[in-house]
Amino acid sequence: MKKKQHWIWQHQEYPKFYYNLQELLPKITQISENIGQVKALMTLLDKKVETSIKIDLFTSEIVSTSAIEGEHLSRESVRSSIRKKLDTTFDKEHDKSTYHTDVLADILMDAMLNTTPLKLARLHQWHVALLSHTPRNFTNIRLGVFRDYDDMQIVSGPIGKEKVHYVGLPHKRISEDINALLKYIHTSDDDIYIKSAIAHFWFVTIHPYDDGNGRIARIISDYIVSQRFGLEYKYFSISTAIAKDRKNYYAMLEMSQNLLENTDLNCTAWITWYLDRFNDALQETLNAINRVMSKTKFWDKVRHITLNQRQLKVLNKLLDFNEGEFQGGLTTKKYVAMTKTSLATAKRDIQELLKVGCLYQIEGTQGRNVKYDIAY
């Protein structure tokens, strides 16, 4: 009796992935429009501010891609590692980086700036660098080599009641399939965002390493898109957008890799989800730029007004959000919590800020429920 096929690599046409281009075109158009907006707004920013935004985005990319896999890095350490590479004013006396975060920054920069063709040796180098911090006495993970066994399973649940979400490609097929993937990356005329999505999906489908496959897949995605934009590409963080929708990330992969649900190697649903995350990431960057521009405009408007340290602290906090985004609005109670001052002082500070036009009372709120927001 013929064994029932369960995974897409068992399909006779694998790895010939299909997708509906007409369904994806609006998503791609939106990405191009958003990138155009980001680049246009960036030209209006001071070079120092532009560098600061890049550092934030690069930091988020490294922190988020690790968080997706359950590894939680110190944002401060990662930021120091990135600043050492991008910020000429970085004070090394306040360096919080570690060897591991420096290595992760090196990988990101290599993916974005090294335009040489992606080969097996580079993949292995990324893998070694990515997992070299893992204590050898607690794991048997082999670095820089593909696995030499089958039964690579993605499972969840307690021991004895595990649910198998996916089983990776047989190890004897890994090298041939990876070479086919690399050829696709360098020769396919697919749109780069579609190519990025397919390469990501294809790599985690192969699942060639003992560990780190998801992170390598996201690095490959960075490499592909960076071939067109270089450092400009990282005006957004795709891993941050994926991390915010982590549950659906795994659900979409599982559905697309399962022949019982995806009988014809159709990747349209996966690519659609992936392109949506690109647009989410770009929108977050646009929001960040708008916040910076709003801050600049606001402080220019109130530069003649004398404000105390409590008022400055609260205004800066509100300026970290777009108008209306500060959850629940500013209340006297929140002002007290943020400044550690008395209720009477908080009320007086707020009244002064209303008088000079730094705050406004949100319409429809009054009495004990009165709320305020920043007046741009």
User: Unreliable runs, pLDDT <50, ≥5 residues?
Assistant: none
Number of helical regions: 14
User: What would you report as the Rg, rounded to the nearest angstrom?
Assistant: 24 Å
CATH fold-level name of the largest domain: Fic-like fold
Q: Count the strands? A: 4
How many domains? The number is 2
Succession of helices and strands: HHHHHEEHHHHHHHHHEE
Quaternary structure of the protein: single chain
Order of neighbouring strands in the sheet with most strands: 1-2
What is the CATH superfamily classification of the largest domain? Fido-like domain
Q: What gap, in angstroms, lies between the N and C termini?
A: 72 Å
Q: How helix-rich are the residues, as a percent range?
A: 55-70%
Strand proportion, as a percent range, falls in under 5%
CATH top level label of the largest domain: Mainly Alpha
Mean pLDDT: 89
The global form is elongated
The CATH architecture category of the largest domain equals Orthogonal Bundle
